[in-house]
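The records we work with from here on pair a chain with its fold. The integers have meaning only within a learned vocabulary of local backbone shapes. A complete example follows; check for yourself that the lines match position by position.

:::
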Amino acid sequence: MNRMTAPDRLKRTSRLWSTLGVVLIFGGWELAARLMGPMLMATPLEAVRTIGSLAGDPGFWSHSRDSLARIALGVSVGCSIGFVLGVLAGHDARLRGLLEPLRWLLMAIPPVVVVVLAMLWFGLGSGMVIFITILMMAPGMYVNTVKGMRMIDAGLLEMGHVYRFGAWTRLRHIYLPALAAPLTAALLIAACGGVRLVVMAEVLGAESGVGYALANARSTFDSGRLYAWVLLILGLVALLEFLLLQPLQRRLTRWQEPSHA
């Protein structure tokens, strides 16, 4: 007879409480919708029904395509810049000191201020949204990369120096395994944050995309369509986290798990 181990029991308990949390969220949503009325808030069932009608609208696919392209480009470029600068700054204290004021500035400034400035510089459209996403995503990845670089075992670095590892070999066999945990955590935060940031920028200053569709639904008091888009955004974030980023995190950090005889 198989006995459930302690980690398995913890995972099962966590799933049960997570399911209860989802039920409470939708229950609270249903109660709030009944209290506020259909003009201000659609019920969960109404939002789900509206998704079906959205899928038959040609604008749905064009808005979704534009937002997905902006998210993919903005998050990937922003994280790549943050990673490269983080690796370089982790090697050189002078570069790290030089970049520190810029890092602090980008992390301290409110995103809405960046949106307003980007609208002045780039106008409305994809350029503005992608610029904002890159600018806001890079600092988080940079900070996590620098932190991971400074925690790498000095003995491993010395071994690479003794055996004359090339730059690619050091990156693949020393840096990436050591950076796997902080980088995957930062990537998870960046991807989910990137979705929110792109939608916010589109609401404030774009002529297409999910945020633009949200703004239109708000202006016409179409609560069913507005909350249908909200559900779709939540679904996208869930897909990114549970089907892509968490499996990637488990794969990259598998070597850190204790082996069982």
Observations:
- The chain has ten helices and no strands.
- Residues 44-251 form a domain with the MetI-like fold fold (CATH 1.10.3720.10).
